[in-house]
Specification:
34% helix, alpha/beta, 5-stranded mixed beta sheet, 241 residues
């Protein structure tokens, strides 16, 4: 692996946040040959009800990603809790490569685990139960078989339910569980984890088998954009105002 590698997550692109869309499009347009890989670790979109949904900015984003991959930047996408229904048509149209929920890469000589992060929030039992249902292939097939307008209405319903449920949950419940973090680091025999989801950007240190391990939490693209960039000399956080 050479040159620069970028990691982003939680852009939550939607027609209700045009400034975030424009910031992301400008970012993609600015990437040149110095950036070899772009990893999007979930929740690129605030909602995704199927590859046939033309709601802005879906088509614009697909076109921009296709232009980026055509330039030679390899783009990888790991599904989040908002856009896990992104399917084959999206990846075919953009040449973006889909990753599994727990993917390990070699990041300049260090095995690094990539996740969205929601699987680590095991204290939120209600969400984990909901996730198990919605990631069942039969459930997904049933949802995707419904008319587009019905899917959009269901998505709006789930978003409202999620918003109401969060009001009744403590902040700690919606954060990662330390035991879950240690468990997944041990499972994959890695000393570095990069994820998003919690919207709590930070760098955490853990001890795994008496060895130091680091966990990078990516920021949400809210009032500004945020990129974790790695190169042979280390990492830095890039902020886009």
């Amino acid at each position: 692996m050479s040159k620069h590698v970028h990691f982003i997550s939680d852009l939550h692109l939607t027609q209700d946040r045009p400034e975030t869309t424009q910031r992301f499009l400008a970012y993609l347009d600015s990437l040149d040959s110095s950036v070899s890989y772009l990893y999007i670790l979930g929740d690129l979109f605030d909602v995704w009800v199927g590859d046939d949904d033309p709601t802005p900015p879906n088509e614009t984003i697909k076109e921009a990603l296709n232009q980026l991959t055509t330039k030679g930047v390899q783009v990888y996408f790991l599904p989040g809790n908002r856009d896990f229904l992104i399917g084959k048509e999206f990846f075919s149209a953009t040449n973006v490569i889909c990753l599994g929920d727990e993917s390990v890469i070699d990041l300049f000589g260090i095995k690094t685990l990539l996740m969205h992060g929601d699987l680590l929030c095991t204290d939120d039992v209600e969400y984990q139960q909901f996730r198990q249902v919605t990631h069942n292939p039969a459930w997904q097939q049933n949802i995707l078989s419904k008319p587009l307008q019905e899917r959009l209405a269901l998505a709006q319903h789930y978003r409202q339910e999620s918003h109401l449920n969060k009001k009744d949950k403590s902040a700690d419940i919606m954060d990662v569980n330390e035991t879950a973090v240690i468990g997944v680091l041990k499972k994959h025999h890695v000393s570095r984890l990069i994820h998003g989801h919690t919207h709590r950007p930070n760098i955490h240190m853990h001890v795994v088998n008496e060895q130091a391990a680091e966990r990078f939490v990516l920021a949400e693209w809210d009032s500004e954009g945020s990129i974790l960039e790695w190169s042979e000399t280390g990492y830095r956080i890039i902020t886009l105002s």
